[in-house]
Task: inverse folding
């Protein structure tokens, strides 16, 4: 069974937010693009009212230069969001993708608090008939992965900073990248011992 | 316990928090084999088909796929089989927003032709919906009166076209406006790449960006002159970032820009990358000073010859000295030298290349001797004050320039949009040529393009000075070959076509007015009316107060667009167009000369028609009206030109309104005919010949790298295009290294020329530049209706250096009034610590017009409270007529 993960080369990321934008289109965040209220929701988004994304890009200025970090869900092996979920709506798939069963989710926000990466949010607009107010997060484009495709963000990155693949396969692009840049590879917030599956190649 | 706790109960809310406190931690990690239903459907309704197209924004020309379901666009993705390898930026990705149910992108679309009384101009109201035929007949009635008189070489009516329209439309504009109807015709490319096109014609002999995007991987040193590549061409910047990571410090980058543009993010100053905050308009002094350092200091003229470059050059010619950095072989073989003289060069368009004889210097190394002597005055210490750079920085830049063999320079509007832009290009090419850093993979000068079809409007021939096939209008041989190609063996018609292009007595070119002059003469009443296509001069044009007056004064203003624009507020006739990207088919040429196909994905809304069909319908009706009025000769001429394009479809044009669906269908075939006609016409034009291309090849074949689209020139049906121009492969094809008559590069000795009209003084102490921003495309017509770009950049601002802000007592977020000699705007100040302008320079985006917030509909009074172009000057470069949008003297006051 594949064990999916992501390698993000921060040297190549220039904070263009292309990944956020393509993800928003692909995964209906924050607007329910299929619904009849799409236009109204779009206006709320434009006004800054709906402000949550699966893929966020954090930026910081270091010595006058912008450094950007794309932040999807880390799909931790030891995911606190799964641990705290009172209704077992959060779960881990066999391929390692952390997902939410929207039918079970009660919108209690515990996972939002538990996640050290703030990868989760509560959906202010329901998508495609799901219940109101459920939690949302990056699911590694599971609908594409199941078809053998890659996540939208990794397919659309202009500089090829985001790579997605099977960490168990030593020949996959991601495994090779990790091997070649072993000294530069870091994971976020190791002190939480969550063992994330998103690796960063740093400067 | 957790199971009993249902969602509904929880959301009812009472005591929920307390209940949660009692929850026990559930098992640590769970593995569930079959994931839940809603993940599979989390995405959009899946697309039924993916249709190939090209992003309608910048000149990267990223190939995109429109996801279509039940006749509607539901998604947009990057095309993995194109040069962009699936990459899209936020502008391209959010194109999908424009098709959402009830979104501004759907609600605001222009769906019916509109007409109103010219008295009622000034707002978007008071239009009445009419049929296509009524709108076109109204125009025909007016235009046929205008064409009874002349202003300049043409009739006093003008089309102001666009680099966003298709290659085919631009060819149509050239064929029917410039030749057929003989009216004035220029494009918004005048504001964008006129300097690049003219300067390339002067130095290389023909227009066409010579390098390719991938050249950044071959370069050792990269000089970015006035080119905010990260914001304006993000796709190409992606490649540059990759090259920088791949090559590490083996790729050195120098950014020469008054603003610390986003591209400086990738510089590694410790490894020797340079950011040089130059004073706007002074690049020639800087370039010449680099050349001075290379010759006088690095080659040792100061040391060994006591600064006498003449003696040193003699020794170089005689072979006594072998220079380290100067490529004597290249100079001797490929270079002619000329004196840089704006007055003489400005006559090129009208009089043709004979003007070069007036300023010719000795060729080859003898000419180089003149250049070396000429540079004596450009000691870094002498230009430090002019350029605002320290001598040490200039020396470092010069050392970087000659480090290793491959130095590549690229520029965009920092050169283009200044009234001495052409001289900058020519000075830079000279430096590249004498050091032999030109015409190789990774070495050369790359004048970039801004618009998605910026190059296509030149190849199509819709820009003044260019003719179909990217011919030089000024070249008699090019005019003659065009007339021959269009005449199809009819000699009478050939003579007539030629007569439209040149004066039979003097043999001077007959040229249309250029953009700025069109609007100035509209204001003076010399030009009666204007027809803008895919264009919004009321935001994008320099000196908006002038444009405002011109549009109010005009007798007829026609706006052809997909959304209401600021310009539409002054229109009498509004023609609803189909968006080329998504709703029609055609081709675009990107900045690396790549022709790519755009396929129709969905039907346009309402009665909207593709651009080309609208122009053809007008020409058809105009031609009929002329015939009815007894102007048979003009009518016959138009009929002759129309024939090969609309043959078989004539009845559809008789009643446009009744045949909308059929005309949209016919557009597919008509575009194809236009493309093959232009391909045929382009035959033999160096670097721009695509006679080997057809829609079939674009649809089914891939180029040598396996990407969709082909790079010009494509010489025959098996040729896959050339990677770059003016290298050895090019020489092998054309038996000439450059496209000039003798195959030699024209190099100029240009002094630093002062900007045309204005400079800073005690009253207007700040220099304003108006750059493009990443989040919005041009005048926001589309991106302003997309949520994410709007959310990121909802309104205009003024970026100011922290030190200047302190001096003026301005804090971040304060409202400031910015005033130039032409007008004033009020915007929020931003103390910019990221894209910081140098002290004395401020910048603001020009994308914002008086339509204000396109989501809430909050408007301002024209010309707009925060429209940057209210401030800018319509002074232009004497050679390229490219207006000076990147330099304005302003004063700033806190309000």
Result:
């Amino acid at each position: 069974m594949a064990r999916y993960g992501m390698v993000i080369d921060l040297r190549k990321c220039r904070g263009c937010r292309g990944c956020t934008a393509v993800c928003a289109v692909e995964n209906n965040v924050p607007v329910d693009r299929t619904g009849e209220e799409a236009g109204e929701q779009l206006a709320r988004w434009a006004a800054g009212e709906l402000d949550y994304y699966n893929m966020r890009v954090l930026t910081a200025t270091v010595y006058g230069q912008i450094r950007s970090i794309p932040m999807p869900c880390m799909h931790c092996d030891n995911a606190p969001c799964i641990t705290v979920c009172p209704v077992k709506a959060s779960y881990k798939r066999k391929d390692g993708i952390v997902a939410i069963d929207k039918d079970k989710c009660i919108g209690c926000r515990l996972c939002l608090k538990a996640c050290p990466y703030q990868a989760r949010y509560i959906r202010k607009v329901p998508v495609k008939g799901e219940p109101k107010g459920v939690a949302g997060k990056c699911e590694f484009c599971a609908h594409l992965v199941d078809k053998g495709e890659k996540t939208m963000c990794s397919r659309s990155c202009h500089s090829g900073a985001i790579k997605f693949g099977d960490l168990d396969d030593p020949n996959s692009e991601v495994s090779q990248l990790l091997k070649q840049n072993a000294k530069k590879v870091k994971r976020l917030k190791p002190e939480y011992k969550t063992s994330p599956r998103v690796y960063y190649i740093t400067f | 316990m957790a199971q009993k706790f249902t969602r509904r109960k929880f959301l009812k809310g009472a005591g929920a928090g307390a209940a949660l406190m009692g929850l026990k931690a559930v098992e640590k990690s769970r593995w569930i084999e079959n994931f839940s239903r809603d993940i599979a459907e989390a995405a959009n309704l899946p697309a039924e088909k993916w249709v190939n197209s090209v992003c309608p924004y910048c000149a990267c020309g990223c190939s995109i796929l429109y996801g279509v379901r039940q006749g509607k666009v539901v998604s947009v993705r990057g095309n993995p089989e194109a040069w962009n390898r699936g990459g899209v930026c936020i502008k391209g990705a959010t194109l999908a927003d424009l098709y959402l149910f009830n979104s501004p992108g759907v609600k605001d679309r222009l769906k019916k032709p509109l007409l109103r009384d010219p008295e009622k101009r000034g707002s978007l109201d008071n239009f009445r919906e009419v049929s296509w035929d009524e709108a076109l007949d109204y125009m025909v009635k007016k235009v046929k009166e205008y064409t009874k008189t002349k202003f300049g070489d043409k009739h006093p009516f003008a089309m102001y076209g666009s680099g966003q329209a298709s290659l085919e439309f631009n060819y149509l504009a050239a064929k029917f406006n410039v030749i057929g109807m003989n009216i004035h015709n220029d494009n918004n490319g005048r504001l964008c790449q006129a300097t690049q096109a003219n300067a390339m014609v002067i130095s290389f002999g023909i227009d066409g960006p010579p390098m390719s995007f991938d050249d950044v991987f071959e370069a050792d040193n990269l000089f970015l002159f006035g080119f905010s590549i990260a914001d304006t061409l993000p796709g190409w910047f992606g490649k540059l970032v990759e090259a920088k990571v791949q090559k590490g410090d083996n790729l050195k980058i120098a950014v020469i820009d008054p603003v610390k543009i986003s591209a400086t993010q990738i510089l590694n100053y410790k490894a020797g990358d340079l950011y040089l905050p130059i004073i706007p308009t002074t690049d020639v002094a800087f370039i010449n000073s680099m050349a001075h350092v290379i010759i006088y200091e690095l080659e040792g003229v100061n040391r060994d010859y006591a600064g006498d470059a003449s003696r040193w050059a003699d020794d170089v010619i005689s072979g006594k000295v072998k220079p380290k950095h100067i490529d004597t072989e290249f100079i001797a073989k490929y270079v002619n030298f000329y004196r840089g003289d704006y007055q003489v060069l400005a006559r090129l368009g009208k009089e043709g290349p004979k003007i070069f004889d007036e300023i010719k210097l000795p060729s080859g190394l003898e000419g180089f001797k003149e250049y070396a002597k000429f540079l004596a005055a450009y000691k870094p210490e002498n230009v430090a004050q002019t350029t605002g750079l320290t001598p040490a920085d200039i020396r470092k830049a010069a050392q970087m320039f000659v480090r290793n063999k491959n130095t590549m320079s690229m520029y965009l509007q920092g050169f283009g949009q200044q009234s001495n832009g052409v001289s900058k290009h020519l000075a830079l090419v000279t430096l590249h040529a004498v050091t032999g850093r030109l015409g190789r993979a990774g070495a050369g000068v790359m004048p970039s393009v801004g618009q998605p079809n910026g190059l296509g409007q030149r190849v199509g021939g819709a820009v003044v000075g260019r003719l179909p096939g990217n011919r030089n209008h000024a070249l008699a041989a090019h005019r003659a070959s065009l007339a021959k190609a269009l005449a199809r063996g009819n000699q009478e018609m050939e003579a007539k076509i030629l007569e439209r292009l040149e004066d039979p007595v003097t043999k001077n070119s007959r040229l249309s007015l250029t953009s700025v002059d069109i609007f100035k003469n509209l204001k003076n009443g010399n030009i009666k009316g204007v027809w803008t296509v895919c264009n919004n001069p009321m935001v994008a044009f320099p000196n908006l107060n002038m444009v405002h007056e011109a549009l109010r004064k005009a007798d007829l203003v026609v706006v052809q667009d997909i959304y209401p624009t600021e310009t539409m507020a002054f229109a009498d006739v509004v023609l609803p167009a189909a968006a080329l990207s998504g709703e029609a088919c055609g081709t675009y040429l990107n900045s690396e000369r790549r022709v790519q196909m755009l396929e129709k994905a969905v039907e346009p809304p309402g009665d909207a028609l593709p651009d080309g069909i609208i122009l053809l319908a007008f020409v058809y009706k105009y031609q009929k009206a002329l015939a009815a009025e007894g102007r048979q000769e003009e009518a016959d001429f138009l009929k002759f030109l129309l024939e090969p394009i609309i043959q078989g479809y004539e009845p559809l044009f008789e009643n446009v309104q009744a045949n909308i669906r059929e005309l949209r269908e016919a557009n597919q075939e008509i575009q194809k005919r236009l493309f093959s006609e232009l391909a045929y016409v382009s035959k033999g034009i160096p670097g721009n010949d695509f006679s080997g291309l057809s829609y079939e090849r674009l649809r089914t074949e891939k180029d040598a790298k396996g990407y969709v689209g082909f790079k010009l020139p494509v010489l025959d049906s098996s040729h896959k295009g050339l990677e770059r121009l003016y290298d050895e492969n090019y020489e092998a094809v054309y038996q000439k290294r450059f496209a000039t008559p003798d195959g030699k590069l024209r190099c100029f000795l240009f002094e630093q020329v002062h900007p045309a009209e204005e400079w800073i003084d005690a009253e207007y102490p700040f220099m304003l530049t108006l750059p493009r921003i990443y989040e919005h495309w041009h005048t926001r017509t589309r991106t302003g209706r997309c949520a994410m770009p709007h959310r990121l950049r909802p309104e205009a601002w003024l970026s100011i250096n922290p030190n200047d802000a302190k001096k003026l007592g301005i804090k971040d977020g304060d409202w400031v009034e910015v005033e130039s000699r032409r007008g004033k705007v009020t915007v929020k100040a931003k103390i910019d610590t990221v894209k910081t302008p140098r002290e004395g320079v401020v910048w603001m985006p020009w994308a914002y017009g008086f339509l204000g917030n396109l989501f809430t509909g909050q408007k301002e009074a024209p010309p707009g409270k925060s429209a940057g172009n209210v401030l800018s000057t319509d002074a232009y470069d004497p050679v390229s007529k490219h207006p000076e949008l990147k330099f304005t003297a302003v004063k700033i006051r806190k309000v």
